[in-house]
Specification:
The protein is α+β, with helices and mostly antiparallel strands. It has three domains: 87 residues, Helix Hairpins; 44 residues, Roll (SH3 type barrels); 82 residues, Alpha-Beta Plaits (2-Layer Sandwich), CATH 3.30.70.100. It is 56% helix and 18% strand. It contains eight helices and eight strands. The longest helix has 55 residues.
C-alpha cells in the first residue's frame, strides 16, 4: 500500500515538474510582455501628449489623452500576457465583461468622474493654468486627470476635486478674460468735504499704474449710511493685477485721506440722557 502511494506521489511530482518546465517559458514571456508593454505605454503616451500640444497648443487635452493612451496600452498588454499564459481570449473577454459589469455597479461614482473628465476636456470649461472658483474654493488648475482635477490654492495647498463635482457645479473662470472690473467702497464722515473726497479718489485712480485708462474710473456716491457717506469707485485692471490692486489701492486712499483731512468714520453711538425723565438721577442731585 505504501509503495502505491509513493508511486503516485512520484508520478504527480514528475507531472508537476513537467508542467512547470513547460509553463516557465510562458510565464517569463508574459512578464517580459508586461514590462515591455509598460515602457511602450509610457513612450507612446509621452509622444501623444507632445504631438497634441504641438498641434493644438492645448496642454489640457494633451495630458488627458496621455492618460487615456497609457491606460489603454496597459490593458491591451495585460490581455496579451494572459493569452500567452494559455488563457483563451474569449474567456478573457467574458471575464472582463462580467467584471466590468460588477465594477460599473460598485464604482458608479468613479465612472461618473471618468465621464465627467471627458466632458470637461470636450466642453473646455477651463484649461490648465486657469484660476477657477468652484463652491467658494479658488485655485489654479494644475491638471485634469481621468477621475479628478487638481487645484492649487493661493496659499499653496493642493485640492483634489472629483470631476463630477466640476461638471455639476457652477464654475467661475477668474482669468479667462484679460481684464477685470473692480468696485471699491470708501466711507467718509458727513462733516468731510464730499467734493474734495471725490477729487482725491479721481486723482488716485486715474494716476495709478495698475488702473486702466479705458474704461475710465468712475467715482460717485453709493449710499448714505447712518454714520458715513459711502463713495463707490468703479474701475478696470488687468487680470494679473487684480489682487495687487485690491491690496495697494485702499491703503493709498487711506493715507491720502488722512493727509487731506478727510475722516473715515467708524461706528459711533451717541447717548443723550434727559435728567428730567430719569428719577434716579433726580434723587442724587
Amino acid at each position: 500500500m505504501q509503495e502505491k502511494i509513493e508511486a503516485k506521489i512520484i508520478l504527480l511530482t514528475d507531472k508537476f515538474i513537467e508542467w512547470l518546465i513547460g509553463f516557465i517559458p510562458h510565464l517569463i514571456s508574459a512578464i517580459v510582455i508586461m514590462v515591455c508593454g509598460y515602457y511602450i505605454a509610457r513612450l507612446f503616451s509621452k509622444y501623444t501628449e507632445q504631438a497634441i500640444v504641438k498641434t493644438t497648443k492645448d496642454e489640457t487635452l494633451g495630458v488627458f489623452l496621455k492618460n487615456v493612451v497609457f491606460v489603454g496600452i496597459l490593458l491591451l498588454t495585460f490581455i496579451t500576457a494572459l493569452t500567452n499564459l494559455g488563457v483563451k481570449t474569449t474567456s478573457i473577454i467574458a471575464v472582463l465583461g462580467t467584471a466590468g459589469l460588477a465594477i460599473a455597479l460598485s464604482l458608479k461614482d468613479s465612472l461618473s468622474n471618468l465621464a465627467s473628465g471627458i466632458i470637461l476636456v470636450i466642453l473646455r470649461r477651463f484649461n490648465r493654468g486657469d484660476t477657477i472658483n468652484v463652491n467658494s474654493i479658488i485655485g489654479k488648475v494644475d491638471s485634469i486627470n481621468l477621475f479628478e482635477t487638481k487645484l492649487t490654492t493661493p496659499d499653496n495647498q493642493v485640492i483634489i476635486m472629483p470631476n463630477s463635482l466640476l461638471v455639476s457645479s457652477p464654475i467661475i473662470n477668474v482669468n479667462i478674460n484679460s481684464t477685470r472690473r473692480m468696485d471699491l467702497i470708501f466711507g467718509i464722515d458727513y462733516g468731510s468735504n464730499l467734493a474734495k473726497a471725490k477729487q482725491i479718489l479721481e486723482e488716485i485712480f486715474t494716476q495709478d499704474e495698475l488702473v486702466l485708462e479705458d474704461p475710465m474710473p468712475v467715482v460717485g456716491v453709493h449710499a448714505l449710511n447712518a454714520s458715513s457717506v459711502d463713495l463707490l469707485v468703479r474701475f478696470w485692471v488687468k487680470t494679473e493685477n487684480y489682487f495687487q490692486a485690491n491690496i495697494t489701492l485702499p491703503q493709498k486712499v487711506k493715507a491720502t485721506f488722512e493727509q487731506q483731512g478727510i475722516e473715515i468714520p467708524y461706528n459711533k453711538l451717541d447717548i443723550n440722557i434727559n435728567p428730567a425723565q430719569t428719577p434716579l438721577l433726580e434723587g442724587k442731585k
